[in-house]
Amino acid sequence: MAHFAYRARNPRGELVEGRLESSDSGAAADQLLNTGVTPIDIRPTGGGDTAVRAIGGLFAPKVTLVDQMLFSRQMYTLLKAGVPIMRALAGLEESSTNPTFRVVIADLRASLDSGRELSAAMRQHPKVFSNFYVSLVRVGEATGALQDVFLRLYEHLEFEKEIRDRIKSALRYPAFVVVAMVLALVVINIVVIPAFAKLFASFNAPLPLMTRVLIGVSDFMVSYWLLLAALLAGAVVGFQAWKSTPKGKYAWDKLKLRIPVAGPIINRATLARFARSFAISMRSGVPVVQGLTTVAAVVDNQFLGSRIEQMRAGVERGESVLRTAASAGIFTPVVLQMIAVGDETGELDDLMLEVAELYEREVDYDVKNLAAQIEPILIVFLGVIVLILALGVFLPVWDLAQVARRR
Asked: With contact defined as beta carbons under 8 Å apart, do 16 and 60 qualify?
């Protein structure tokens, strides 16, 4: 099926524009005529993602999490007020401040106008609407509870934004300290140590081992700084390329969970995202197997996602959610006990929300104390650097002063 952009006149003679999907231009014209619209111009065009790229390519603003939150909340409000979905999308298209998202909404309207469902139209924009988002919208269309689905999606996206903002806020100070320390080391090696090296060389006195090592490192950085910068840039590019491969992303996601201090926070935040997403999918009427499949992609961690896929495979074989969760090896005994109660009482969605809230409280506590946990590590690291510099730079100065006094 190809995509076509059209210009046409409605029964009132007004000019209308949009996009639709059809086998060829003739079928597209017949499709428009069947809806009471007289086509003027029909041109082949790309899909949804091509339309988005056409407004600026790499320079086009991205659709942010806030844009998705506002869209979900406004759709809930408009649908609850009884506004037809086409009119609701038209209003959101006009009020959107993001040109990229405005194009996406226009494409949604065109797809709906051509007879497609909203979930099918959203699926054309995977960079904007995730599989989890599209799955819930599809369930909402089937059950007639689309407005409630948009409210749950808004709450889910709000939780996502809150977790990200908390982690970024907690890491801002340690990141600033680390960057400042790295810049200080570069300045010391390029400016300070060479000045002391000239002073030491003028006395022709033997230097301690630590001083010779520091001078050697400084000379190497001064002589080969361009090579070091190229190697650093190559390492960054190579790491990004490796991380973009399936094996590399899996290994990196697994390694992230083992990083001291930050690893446990990432693990609990990811599991909180899983628990809340799974609860929302079940409350929206998504079957357990399908819910686990879509949620596995929402957690944004290949390692934990593979464990959730193992849970899905176990449920497909007829095993209970509790047994598959225990075999996954990613939940604590307390969480497993809560899952067991929910599995027995048939209120697994409520218990999974409680699991999410449990993890969220732990993440909130850890994030608030993250700076306090990192500060001792930074202080020890800074102390070691100062000690090395003091031994390497000031000991020779002390020895030279002693020699001068004897003379």
From this structure: no
Upper half-sphere CA count for residue 132 (Cβ side, 13 Å): 24
CA-angle at 259, arms to 253 and 261, nearest 5° = 130
Residue 72: which residues within 8 A CB-CB, separation 6 or more?
150, 151, 153, 154, 157
CB atoms within 10 A of CB 183: 10
CA-to-CA distance for 108 and 125, rounded, in angstroms?
Answer: 9
Nearest in space to 399 (alpha carbons), one of 212, 215, 218, 203: 203
For residue 361, give Cα distances in angstroms to 25, 168, 351. Answer: 56, 17, 15
| Cα 108 from Cα 101, distance rounded (Å) | 10
Residue 273, beta-bridge partner list: none
Asked whether 106 and 93 are in contact (CB, 8 A), the reply is yes
User: Residue 112: which residues within 8 A CB-CB, separation 6 or more?
Assistant: 85, 86, 89, 118, 121
Q: What would the mean pLDDT of 248-273 be, rounded to a whole number?
A: 85
Instruction: Give me 178's structure tokens.
Output: 């680390």
Q: Predicted confidence band at 71 (pLDDT cuts at 50, 70, 90)?
A: very high
Using the structure block, give the residue that is written with the tokens 């040109």.
Answer: 99
Q: Two tokens at 365?
A: 């506590």
- Taking a C-beta distance cutoff of 8 angstroms, is the pair 16, 10 a contact? yes
Would the pLDDT of 56 be above 50? no
Please answer whether residues 45 and 19 qualify as being in contact, where contact means their C-beta atoms are separated by less than 8 angstroms: yes
Asked if residue 269 lies in contact with residue 124, where contact means CB atoms within 8 angstroms, the answer is: no
Which amino acid is located at 292 in the chain?
L
**Whole-number average pLDDT of the chain:** 80
- For residue 403, what pLDDT band results from cuts at 50, 70 and 90? low
> CB count, 10 Å around CB of 102?
17
The DSSP element (H or E) to which 156 belongs, if any, is helix 146-187
Per-residue model confidence as pLDDT tens digits over 9-53: 766 666 777 777 766 666 677 677 667 677 777 776 655 444 444
**H/E element, 165:** helix 146-187
The kind and range of the H/E element at 15 are strand 15-22
Q: How many residues does the chain have?
A: 407
Q: How far is CA 36 from CA 9, 12, 13, 51, 337, in A?
A: 9, 10, 11, 26, 59
State the helix-helix crossing angle for 348-368 and 262-283, rounded to 10 degrees. Answer: 150
Tell me the C-alpha distance between 378 and 46, whole Å. 52
pTM above 0.85, yes or no: no
